[in-house]
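Lab notebook, bench 4. Still working through the backlog of constructs that have no structural model yet. Next entry is a single chain of 308 residues. Request: give me the structure tokens for it.
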Amino acid sequence: MEVAGSRPPVAVIDATFRPARARALLFAGLAAGIALAAVGISSQRTAPPLPADAMARVNGRVIRDADFQAALNDAALLAGATSPSDAAGRRQVLDGMIEEELLVQRALDLGLAQRDGRVRRELAAAVVTSVVLTANATEPDVAELRAYYEANRAHFAQQVVVRVAQVWLGVTNLRSETQSYEKAKEAERRWRLGDDVVTIRSDVGDAEPVPIPDRPMLPGELARYLDPICVNVVLSLAAGKISQPIRSLTGFHVLKVVARWTGGSASFEQALPVVESEYRQERANRALVDYVKELRRGAAIEVRPDAP
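Model written out:
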């Protein structure tokens, strides 16, 4: 019978049920945790093995043996020694590559390739370099060069091509600018006395960050390897002449014009160095234009109607 003003009846739970239910939930949770751990261990065990030419893998991205060896060589150049052969030194280089890969992946995750102008320019420049190197990977044959020469006789009459060698001295935290200049002057003195450039580089110089190819080049191509002030000095020198040390952003350059050609009324054979250098540059330009056109054809590009 319900009495007015009394509280409603309270359901009674058997106290003996609670510990049993708690134990059941506990065991269920443990079982689930063990199952998840087993899945994790299983996934680790079933991860695909590293490729035969791989040194490491970072979030699926492979670090190749060839890239590791190149990094070892770079480390040796910076240290002024041979490539690290001890396990600790090699592991330090590998750890550096792993950390660099992690940072690159993080930069991509953060969208720096889309938002950072400097990063975008460097990425674009890397693609351009790759296209140019691919275009010039094969040697042009004589028939191609002769046809190019005949079609551009007037153009070649005005061209200057030089073959340049250099000894480079960097300015680093380990050596003052004055010390680098003095070593550059020593390189100049020995070169003028007739010493071999290879010997001078070995005894006095530093490893060039971007070596100048040992072949005839147009001024525009030479500018890929030297600062504008260095290019201007080269163009002012006659064949066989050696410059004084020239200060650039990276250090001191001592330059020699090994050979110099002009088109003029020379025959095809005489103008061949000029012709080949110009042909290579134009072939690279054509390849780059075609490459960009192909990218545009495969891209979804939308432009606002009133855009220029």
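Notes after review: Confidence is low (pLDDT under 50) at residues 1-19, 21-28, 34-39. Residues 1 and 7 are 12 Å apart (CA to CA). Flag for follow-up if needed.
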